[in-house]
Amino acid sequence: LVRLNAMIGEQAATKTMIAKAMKYLGTKVVEDVERAKKWRKEGTPYTINWDNAVHYLYISALSGWRQTSAEAAATDFVLDEVKKNNTGLNLYYKAIMAVVLAKRGETKLAGEYVRSLDEYTVETEEMGRYYDSPRTGYSWFDYSIPTQVRAIEAMKLIDAQGYAGTIEEMKRWLLMQKRVQGWNTPFNNVNAVYAFLEGNT
């Protein structure tokens, strides 16, 4: 829904729904961060739900969401942790963080992430450009299409002209996936459509 707003403007029909979702996500991230800080203070190994946190950062950045002071502090904590441990980011999270950092004006680090994303692509004449790497990650849904779409989005945001050829080849791979096996899930369908429509007429 936030992506739709970013493409065509805020939709009155979903405004309340998005606000409630953002409030819920923000509360969860604040709770995760406070728990992590408490455990760290006690000397206990801690983990934070990076999936929730990074997606919250992405949605906030894309929507321009006005965070509470507690949410902003939690966001800063997550960003600091990611920067300290960025070598462990898979390609999917690296692409998300490139968008987050670029939206926050941290274009140097965002650019480094995008260069890394570009370096991991492989190209074939038949399939276009894509990621043939376990670093795309794995979950209950196929991460290859979401990773491809996130990378395209990051490249467009950082340097659309410089990566124009790569972006077109990556879109070709998405089309080939539709041709040879379909996009598999509603999640992948929405991602792929976003890659083609975002930034285009």
Could you walk me through the main structural features you see in this protein, from its secondary elements to its overall organization?
Helix content is 67%, strand content 4%. It has helices spanning 2-8, 15-41, 50-63, 69-84, 91-103, 107-119, 144-159, 164-180, 186-197, and strands at 121-124, 128-131. Strands 1-2 form a two-stranded antiparallel ribbon. Strand 1 and strand 2 form a beta hairpin. Helix 2 packs across helix 4 and helix 6 (107-119) crosses helix 7. The protein is globular. The mean pLDDT is 88.
Main attributes?
about 200 residues; mainly alpha; two-stranded antiparallel sheet; 2 strands; about 5% strand
* Radius of gyration (Å): 17 Å
Q: Give the N-terminus to C-terminus distance in angstroms.
A: 19 Å
| Distinct helical segment count | 9
The overall strand count is 2
Strand content: under 5%
Secondary-structure element string: HHHHHHEEHHH
Mean pLDDT: 88
* Structure class: mainly alpha
Principal-axis shape equals globular
Task: Give the helices and strands, then pairings.
Blueprint: H1 2-8, H2 15-41, H3 50-63, H4 69-84, H5 91-103, H6 107-119, E1 121-124, E2 128-131, H7 144-159, H8 164-180, H9 186-197
Antiparallel strand pairs: 1-2
Helix pairs in contact: 2-3, 2-4, 3-5, 5-6, 5-7, 6-7, 7-8, 7-9
